[in-house]
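yo

u said u wanted the structure for the complex thing, so here. seqs first:
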Amino acid sequence: MSKKLFLNIIGLALIAMTFTMCKSQSAVAPSTPDEALAELIAGNERYVSEKTIHPRGGMDRVKETAPHQAPFAAVVGCSDSRVPVELLFDQGIGDIFVILTAGNNVNSEMVMGSVDYAIEHLGVKVLLVLGHGSCGGVTGAITEGEHEHGNIGHLLSTIRNDVSEYVGKTDSLEAAIHHHAHVQVERILSYPHVSEKIEKGELLVKQAYYDVNTGKVTIY
Ligand SMILES: [Zn+2]
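structre next:
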């Protein structure tokens, strides 16, 4: 074999490998709720073990998703700079429909409208309510004493209504965070159109928790 032919073969092999890797970046979206949940779990495992692949984050994906979005998951998370949803699940553009409110509370028509949009119109396969450690929203809600007024006061009282048994028990913050996320899941499940989708096997709604110390997400 001539040196030139050998180099051509190596070149073609490299092009084929690059093509295969690019294809895997825009992998077929999960088609079932179980697959969707597994994809989120796998992405978080890559994140925790520092083996992220940052899939579907390039300009080709920007162009691919420009006409319409078809995310496979929705996450109701907390407005907290330490909980970057796409990063911690190692997902890309158009993969996750992210709804953020301080304290990941869904007790408003605005937020539930967004949840409904994700479920009804976008057809997400899995929805997580993602609480997290050191949550300032839940901390503020269960702290007794002089409370904030105005919009922040309204926000904290909304959360407080869902964790009333923990008010004054700041040493039970972790339990309050879990309970608060659980109440949001129950609230979402109380809507018949949501429970019907679950019964048909078209949707999973799960409570989850992000550990700000380790980066690990636990699904309940
Ligand atoms: Zn929070």
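The longest strand covers residues 126-132. Residues 73 and 96 are 5 Å apart (CA to CA).
cya
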